[in-house]
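task queued by scheduler; priority normal; single chain, no ligands, no partner chains; default sampling; output format set to structure tokens
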Amino acid sequence: MRKAGLRVTKQRLAVLDALHQTPHGTADEVLDHVRQSLPGITVQSIYTVLHSLTGAGLLRQLDLANSPARYETRVADNHHHAVCMDCGRIEDVACAVGHAPCLHPSETHGMTIQVADVVYQGLCADCAARSSAEAPTPDPREARQG
């Protein structure tokens, strides 16, 4: 924190600890974890700490579709994410191809691209297994004859 120009506070340390314990956590999940050690911390304090740590480059904010903002401590690389569309599980995925920003766009519109955010969406193994186990087995007597 000091290298990033921030004072080391118990609130900031607690938020970092929460995100080490709950990778890709939401502000509410961070709040629940931090309140175990700092019961008096407010929601606003959590947002203030998340904002300052993100601004200092110590956290990365993930803005995924249909999800509140999530935060992670893995900031030193340009990795991507795989998200289960059923249970919401999020896993880190190494760069798709090459070095950061990993992907080479067909058009940059004059921008110097520094980061490529890729989100793979699908079903995790647990949800896929549960889905196939819950699928009704067709009754061969009901098969159409033709």
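post-processing summary
- The chain has a mean pLDDT of 88.
- The chain has four helices and six strands.
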